From TrEMBL:
Gene3D superfamilies for this protein: P-loop containing nucleotide triphosphate hydrolases
SUPFAM superfamilies the UniProt entry points to: P-loop containing nucleoside triphosphate hydrolases
Keyword field contains Repeat: no
InterPro entries (alphabetical): AAA+_ATPase, ABC_transporter-like_ATP-bd, ABC_Transporter_VariousFunc, P-loop_NTPase
Domain of life: Bacteria
Annotated organism of origin: Phocaeicola acetigenes
GO MF annotations, alphabetized: ATP binding
Pfam family, one: ABC_tran
Protein name: ABC transporter ATP-binding protein
UniProtKB keywords: ATP-binding, Nucleotide-binding, Transport
Length: 221
């Protein structure tokens, strides 16, 4: 089933064109990767999908779908504990607080939930943001650079969690610069380049993707 259909999406900041007639679609139950150089427009694409920025073109989303978005950098108010943050996020989605679910999930994440979230390390903040999404039970998870700053143990756990989401029929879109990790996890990988999705890789080898990226770099020289 098609969850998101994007046609000719364009977005500029002032005179800087970031996305230009980008078309792509996402089906339910799959894990999608999004790669592209710094500034290619990955976060901008996510912001357009989430409707937090204006754009030209068409984005059609399944009406019943609940989306959870983990930005590359989460913001936490000071004087809010990890636990209070989770409570806030769960309530914001109209769900009931389930202390057992939090405890059970925190056996994996091992966060000091009684401490102020603003004092967490980068990786701990990522884990807290992800924990809040998982507790909300969304249909689609958009994760912007979820592995950045997360330790080895956390990355292994995160990969498992993402696979479990897929097993439950959820859809996940992940942007990352870690091509090996995306290759391990994703059903399909999109290469965002020159303001649009240049290529979608399905069951492609790492070599093929890397070669295309290198060729792209060389073609600019
Ligand atoms: N609010 C904004 N105002 C002006 N320019 C912006 C804004 N947000 C993003 N940009 C510009 O849009 C372009 C795309 O940025 P974006 O953050 O979407 O890229 P990205 O692919 O996510 O990059 P990275 O891999 O470095 O995270 C960049 O040139 C950036 O400077």
């Amino acid at each position: 089933m098609e969850l998101i259909y994007i046609k000719e999406l364009s977005k500029s900041y002032g005179k800087t064109r970031v996305l230009d007639k980008l078309s792509v679609s996402y089906e339910s139950g799959k894990i999608y990767g999004l790669v592209g150089e710094n500034g290619a427009g990955k976060t901008t694409l996510f912001n357009c999908i989430m409707g937090v920025t204006d754009y030209d073109g068409e984005i059609r989303k399944s009406s019943k779908m609940v989306v959870g978005y983990m930005p590359a950098e989460s913001f936490f108010y000071s004087l809010i504990t990890g636990k209070e943050y989770l409570e806030f996020c769960i309530k914001a989605k109209g769900k009931k607080m389930d202390a057992k679910a939090i405890d059970s999930l925190n056996k994996v994440f091992q966060l000091p939930l009684e401490r102020f979230a603003s004092d967490y390390s980068t990786g701990m903040k990522k884990k807290l943001a992800l924990m809040s999404l998982l507790l909300q039970e969304n249909d689609l998870y958009i994760l912007d650079e979820p592995f950045n700053g997360v330790d080895l143990y956390g990355c292994i756990q995160l990969k498992r969690i993402i696979r479990e989401l897929k097993d439950k029929g959820k859809t996940v879109i992940i942007s990352s610069h870690l091509i090996n990790t995306l290759h391990e996890l994703c059903d399909e990988i999109d290469f965002l380049d020159a303001h649009a999705i240049r290529k979608r890789y399905i069951q492609a080898s790492i070599d093929e993707i890397e070669q295309d990226i290198l060729n792209r770099e060389n073609s600019n020289m």
